[in-house]
Amino acid sequence: MAMSRKHYREFAQILRQARKYYPNDQAGIDFIMRELADTCARDNHSFRRQQFYDAATPETP
Predict the structure, then answer these.
(1) Measured at the alpha carbon of residue 52, what is the angle toward residues 50 and 53, in degrees to the nearest 5?
(2) 3-state helix, strand, coil in the chain (%, to 5)
C-alpha cells in the first residue's frame, strides 16, 4: 500500500513536535527529515520535498 498525503502530513507534524520538544537536537531531526523525504519521494514521484520541509519546520515568530 502506498503512502498518502495524510501520511506525509502526519510525518511533518511529528517532526514539528520533535523540533519543539528537542531544540538541542536539530541536526538529528534534520537527518530524520531528509531520510523520511527520501523514502516518501521513492514512494511517490510527485512528492514535493520542499513543501514537506516547510511543513516540518515551525514558523519562527
Answers:
(1) 65
(2) 75, 0, 25
Question: Residue 45 is placed in which grid cell?
Answer: 514521484
Other CB atoms closer than 10 Å to residue 21's CB: what's the count? 8
Quickly tell me which residue has 531528509 as its cell: 34
Burial of residue 8 (CB within 10 Å: 0-12, 13-18, 19+) is buried
37: buried, middle or exposed (CB in 10 Å: 19+, 13-18, 0-12)? buried
pLDDT tens-digit readout, 19-58: 999 999 999 999 999 999 999 999 999 999 999 999 999 8
